[in-house]
Records
---
Amino acid sequence: MEYYSSHINRLIEQLSHLPGIGAKSAQRLAFHILNMPREQVDQLTSAITDARENVQYCKCCYTLTDKEICPICSNPKRDHSVIMVVENTRDLAAYEKTGKFEGVYHVLHGAISPMLGIGPDDIRLKELMQRLSRDEVKEVIIATNSSLEGETTAMYISKLIKPTGIKVSRIASGVPVGGDLEYIDEVTLLRALEGRVEL
Ligand code: ZN
């Protein structure tokens, strides 16, 4: 890396911190950026800074949004008595794309993983329980991934909710094991949702 100027090295280093970007990809991206028209680079940097500055967690479901309460939570046409619990905002988007889910969401921002030292307090679980004690909720659909972490989280949540008497269900196992929800097609997601089983 000493072949490059310190400015280039800094750009490569910053890019290599991004997920899925190794040293080689970081170099390729850095040189691509340097060859971009000045104007385009400005647009890219301002898009990053603007997003970081203006995006916040919805006070109700904790998805990432521009407003204090996200458009889904503030929509009176949605069924607020059915909450689908997902691991992240990308999974929420995957279900929204199907256009068939009329309830609302709760975004955990992670999953319980004893291996990685991620416990129940490290995800937005307390917030979910507070919501359940506050709002009139009929059903909680757990749509965490079918990975070990996702299953562990689903079990934990169902044990937590059961005593409250609220119906808890889990999306059907049509979702491939270890599959990230965002990569699954809409038909599979719908089937998983419709075929959900009560826990
Ligand atoms: Zn929301």
---
Amino acid sequence: MEDLIRVENLRKEFPVQKSFLDQLFAGKEKGFVHAVDDVTFGIKKGEVLGLAGESGSGKSTTGRLLIRLLDPTSGNIYFDGENLADKSPKEMQTFRSKMQVVFQDPNSSLSPRMRVGDAIGHPLKIHTDLGVEERKRKVMELMERVGLSPAEFLYYKYPHQLSGGQSQRVVLARALVTNPEFVVADEPIAMADVSVRAMILELMKELKEEFDLTYLFVTHDLSTAKYICDRIAIMYLGRIVEIGNTRELFDHPHHPYTKALLAAVPVPDPTQRRTEEIPRGEIPSAIDPPAGCHFHPRCRYATEACSKGRPPMREVSPGHFSACILD
Ligand code: SF4
């Protein structure tokens, strides 16, 4: 099957002012945060690709680049064969309704002054020429579908009058109201109460089938990714270090960083946790990332070669790729 979304050699650098001492010794006023560092991957139509890693790994920035909420520094972003990377804001209008995003915090992505019905219907006002009554009918239908029931009651509520689970359903409905093909879900349940997380995930799965959606599911939580994703890509300091089928990645992780993330997943029996896999130290700064394999200062298997060059991505089993020199 063809990729619906494909990114090639994607990079995003954010300029930052260097400290006085750095300016003095390095002689440069500005540095760059290498948020996304030469990333290449594809997402097939109907697939859920998880993008997992610690905070600061570049996963949310990658999600925003895919739908051009951010402009890439370089690289290509293909949506259904069209390169979005060099489209102007005006040209991007054509694609906006086909690509939507669900952010982590529903409260900060909903206007406190906009009623629920108006918030969900707002994209229809921008992207379609449907009349007021038709928009309202479509919004009410969708509200019932995502569990915002009774819709005629909740339609006139303000965000502060909703529960956390209801707010997240509003955000989902707003993302789906224009019948998009691709949705970036950026930590969509991270702010939800434990009791509603499973319900929102289940709803997202059902909506995917019903609306024929393709998801990029950004998360720091591998147990959530396991539940919903067909494949998972692991990011570390702006690079994808491993990508493969979810089952394969859980059963046969290859990259030491993936093993570390898996070892950190809570298990019912803490004595079974493989604490020796958990890496030492914190994730380094993306302004001056370590040379070679970015993971080498924290990797228990690192050799001299690891700090010399970037390890190439290679296929370690069918459809399973890892950027590590280990056999
Ligand atoms: Fe560790 Fe070297 Fe593999 Fe990087 S390339 S993960 S440093 S063994």
---
Amino acid sequence: MNYKMLLIKYAEIGTKGKNRYVFEDTLCKRIRQRLKPLGDFEVRREYGRIFVDAHSEYDFDAVIERLSQIFGICGICPVDVVEDVTYEQISEGCIRHIEQSYEKKNFTFKVNARRNDKTFAKNSMELNQDLGADLLNHFSELSVDIHKPDVTVYVEVRNVVLIYSKILPGPGGLPVGTNGKAITLLSGGIDSPVAAYMIAKRGVSLEAVYFNAPPYTSERAKKKVIDLATEVAQYAGVLKLHIVNFTELQLAIYENCPHDELTIIMKRLMYRMAEEIGLAADCQCIVTGESIGQVSSQTTHSLRVIDHAISELPVMRPCIGMDKQEIIDISEKIGTYETSILPYEDCCTIFVDKHPVTRPKLERIEASEKALVGKIEELYKKAMDTIEVVYCR
Ligand code: ATP
Ligand code: MG
């Protein structure tokens, strides 16, 4: 038998003053969307909290897994509901709750009762003591610890009685859709899906762009990026993925520019295209997975030169100060790691020089790019006109 109700705890949204309703509504909507395929659920807001009522049988683990991917949720409490508000029923409810929620009963506990219905015969203090005594009588292994209990049994007496004691962790953050929109540069690597996740966690909706280089990169490499976008979408909501055919532009750079500057010049072009796509999609920023010093194009010198390619949208880099292992830890936690390490080629690695510049000079790069004038405008337009769009969900 499953819990009839789940109590959703949220932290930061509670502090948003007047915007609070927007945050709560967005969160409710998100919960409804995500749970819809799993059963008949009613999501409602009451007493500054969100409740999920289950009106059908459901797969508990599947529901908890989905909820633990919804930004804005910081805790999920499975609730037993007692409809008949009498002391006897509440006491039986508490016993049933402990019986079903814990396999082993050798823990310390206390009861924390709240009586919202002041006409109820016992006050909160009496409820704490009497329910505590009933639980002790029923489960011989239990013991009471008022100060540092392993388990606190919450009992809320309203028009019905709510009993809960477990708080399963949510991902925290803010509900997606409450903080604007970003265009995220998604490659097949480990870092960019993590960067996308972290920005979405702050409530930002995402679109994504992938620069593809067929036939130098395979269909499988593209499929890998679509899979990653789909994995990120489990947290970030539906992700519109723009797939740009970058091959001819890349070849033009290869043929016309110094090879030790290829990566920098390529990145600058990617940023320009991403900015254009992002502006058309009403995005306020670009997101990338760069981290200082990880490769030659991610030195502070290189990042400065790459940033200089665009002027409208700021570039956000949530991984910028993280070590590779820290990024890997997050990618494992959010479930993108296994896909990211699949060994398919990336457009950047194919044209990469053996000794790329690590301290590029802006003036030099801009001078090198002059060689592209008159050669890439058509290709640029063609690439923009032939973007393939995939909705990942
Ligand atoms: P990642 O693990 O995210 O692939 P990386 O360590 O391989 O990153 P780079 O190849 O230098 O680093 O790329 C830096 C960032 O540029 C990536 O995190 C990503 O945001 C973006 N990027 C690189 N290649 C592509 C691509 N083919 N399509 C879209 N974005 C890309
Ligand atoms: Mg990469």
